Amino acid sequence: MSRAEVLEALRARFPDMAARPVDTASSVVVDGMRLREHLLHLRDTLGFDFLTFMTAIDRPTESRLELVYRLFSYTSRVSLMVRVLLPREAARVDTVSDLYRTAEWHEREAAEMFGIAFTDHPDPRKLLLPDDLEGHPLLKDFTHPNMLRLPEVR
Amino acid sequence: MNGVDGNSAILRMPGGSVLLTSLERVINAARSNSLWTLTFGLACCAIEMMATGASTYDWARFGFEVPSASPRRADMMIVAGTVVRKIVPIIRTLYHQMPDPKYVVAMGGCAISGGPYVYDSYTIVRGVEEIVPVDVYIPGCPPRPEALLHGLMTLQEKIRLQTLRKPGQPA
Amino acid sequence: MGEAPQPTSDEFLLNVGPQHPATHGVLRVEVTMDGEVVKNIVPHIGYVHRGLEKLFENRTWEQIIPYTDRTDYLSAIANNFAYVMAVERLLGIEVPQKVHYIRVIAAELNRIASHLLWLAAYGLDMGAFTPFLYAFRDREEIGGMIEEASGGRLTTNYFRVGGFVHDLPPGFFPRLETFMGHFGGKIDEYDTLLIENAIFVARTRGVGAISRERAISYGMTGPCLRASDAALDVRRDAPYSIYPKLSFDIPVGKNGDTWDRSKVRIEEMRQSLRILRQAIDGFPEGDFRVKVSRNIEPPPGEVYAAVEGPRGEVGFYVVSDGGRKPYRVKMRKPSFSNFSALPEILRGMKIADLVAVMGSLDLVVPEIDR
Q1: What CATH number matches the domain at B36-156, 3.40.50.12280, 3.90.1150.10, 2.30.30.370, 3.10.50.40?
Q2: Smallest Cβ distance to C46: which of B51, B67, B86?
Q3: Phi/psi at B35 (nearest 5 deg)?
Q4: What is the model's pTM?
Q5: pLDDT one-digit tens code per residue, A102-149
Q6: How far apart are CA B160 and CA B63, in angstroms?
Q7: What is the ipTM of this complex?
Q8: How far is C257 from C207, CA to CA, in rounded Å?
Q9: Which residue in A has a C-alpha nearest to residue B122's C-alpha?
Q10: Which of A146, B1, B32, C59 is disulfide-compatible with C63, CB 3.0–4.6 A?
């Protein structure tokens, strides 16, 4: 599919898709319960076979975690950001590590850094953190006795 | 090494202390001129360590000819890079596996005190001296190869000053 | 008489690393073997995890630049480049043409230096000591030029939001011309010395192949992906800076094996020389920076900016809430995805191929761990 065809198909499927003038990708928000369904369609029908990265952003003021997947299509060279909004407590979403093999490690990292549970993940061990580290570092309210805070910049 | 104390045979001989000093000089020269390094490059400083071992700077002419991957035959460990909590048991194991006399060189800001990661890192170890005793500190981020060579020559000097009477301590 | 009974062997576990000369950093790989055949590999990382993404949330936008060098120190310029581009896009500023040209020259020199170090370390892993010495000789030359311009040989901290602190030093272009004059021949030397060497070819051809579909699924980028017949290069597919104006080829391998990955890197060095030639010939006059406020405070928003680093796609996803410090910084690092493919590549191969394959992936561990 050509770039124009892909963009049109995206607009048809995601009417609320937002263009982002400072970036090359458009952005859509999907429901966590339908994530696998959407990603399967994006990968198999629209050719988004490349998961560039996946991460999360903690938004405590809105009481939620924002999961971000950046997809790229090898054939049409279109980029797309897919977002999922999850509650901060007991966040859970389906794994996509069988759809995108790279997601296995990205999800392991998101799980240990944000406390997100990925259903049916093949290998839910800690990836980067030492086993005895408690808490989820990238949450905004994380503290650790080993963390000295840099004095404020004037 | 248990050292040579005042009652030992060699010091009770006439001219014994001269003999001992000459012996020390030979032993220290032998040790300082053939230090085998345990390559323990953790991060960026490892590249400058490699550059020091390579053609332009060449630490082999100072005797550091053999970078030993095995700690069992290494004389010194150059800790080059950031030390984090997860690698601490490995550093300890490696240090204990090295036979005496052994020396540790802390290369770069991270190994000395935590470097740029002193603040706001939940895994940092603020200096490898929290884990193993350090003989020479080489500041820099990363230190230039010349700085590493200077640090290694300082270590050689330190070794030359060691005495059999009080092994492991500076003269 | 019947057939001789086949020997049986039990599986055993071999631990490689984290302190190991061939792991290129502090990586640990647990290999389950049946005799010499690798049954399974479990990678363990995190031995140099400094918690950078958390650390960045307490640094101002400018203070982050030196930290970006130290994630992947061999492609410090590429990291500077991606981060600075992301912040400039958030701020909505355009830099002068001269800045673009200097950035591209520095980036391509960095690519050559990184590939040279890959060659040196890989030769060392395979038992060839000479390429190590030759490659470092050339790396010193490049390092000297970059040091004159930026102040750093390895961790350069060169780029700034909006341009540079100083213009290029006066001796830069003569040095660069001297380097360009002889380096083309050196690449041929490295090619014949190592890559086309019969022993090297025997050790690497047909070893560790990965298909294009699997490589894409694993998120591999850079020479590792291009060796699998996938012409994906950020400079072509999401062009930035002046790359749309420059003409260069994207070297692509056919089989996705270790030899292809090696050959692609040699060819990339040749293409970098082509790019450098065009950048030098077209070098414009102008400012070396655009005026940016002393305290950078980008408006709320988010940007993902990526460059083609020597290892693959290096990207920075930055989220701003309008303050002096970023709200979230996610670093997209090529070695993270490249390394995750190792278990699949190595399953069923012999243990001696472990070193060959790991070296060909050109990993830098602090980039994986951050």
Answers
A1: 3.40.50.12280
A2: B86
A3: -80, 125
A4: 0.91
A5: 999 999 999 999 999 999 898 888 889 988 888 899 999 888 888 888
A6: 14
A7: 0.91
A8: 6
A9: A147
A10: C59
